[in-house]
Amino acid sequence: MNAVIVANGKFPEHPKPLRLIHEAKTLLCCDGSIEHLVKLGITPTAIVGDLDSVSPELRERFKNILFHDPDQNSNDLTKAVSWCAERNINSISIVGATGKREDHTVGNIGLLVRYARMGLQVEMVTDTGTIKPLLESAKLTSFPGQQISIFSPVNQTTITTNNLKYPIDNGQIPEWWMGTLNESLGSWFELNFSPGPLIVYQMY
Q1: Is 0.85 surpassed by the pTM of this model?
Q2: Structural domain for 11, as ranges
Q3: Which of 50, 122, 147, 151 is buried deepest, with most CB atoms within 10 A?
Q4: pLDDT per residue over 33-65, tens digit each?
Q5: E strand residue ranges, the chain
C-alpha cells in the first residue's frame, strides 16, 4: 500500500509533488498542512500530530479524521509515518518537508534513515528532486546529466560508485559536502557501500 504525507514545511510548487498529492489514495496531513489542502479543495485521509497548528474551525470541520498524538519526543512527520506503518502502509512519499526552517529540513532528511530501518520504502519529494535513504548497496534509475549528491551519516562508510562522472573507488566521504554535485552518466548509477546508511539526492 502507498501513501503520501504532506508535512508542514513549504508547500510544494513543482508538478511532481503536486501530482502525488492530487493522485494519492491515502493522503495524510501533518498538523497545520491541512490549511494548504483546504485551499485546493482536497480532503485528506487523516490529519496527524499534536494539532497545535490546526485552527479550532478546522478541528471541528475535520474532527472525524483527526489523530491527536501529544508526544513531544516525536515530531509530527514521524507520527504520520507511524500511522502508516501501523496500518501496513509500507511505501510512503513525503512532500512539504523542506523549505522553511533549515533545522527542520535537516532533521526531516535525517529521519528518512529511521523510517527505512522500520522496513518502510520512503522517499522525500521536493520542488527540485527526490531524497532517498539507502541501507544497502543499490542500483538506481537515472538519466544522463542528472545531478546526484551522496551523504554519508557514518564517516566510516566505504563507497564504490559506478556510472557517475566523479567516481568514488573504495573511498569515504569524511565531510558531508564532499559527496555533493556529482552527475549521472546514463540511465542508472550504482552505489556499493558498507556499512550503511547513505542518503541520496537526485535532481529532476
Answers
A1: yes
A2: 2-127
A3: 122
A4: 999 999 999 999 999 998 888 899 999 999 999
A5: 2-6, 27-30, 46-49, 66-68, 91-95, 121-125, 129-134, 138-141, 147-151, 158-162, 182-183, 188-194, 198-203
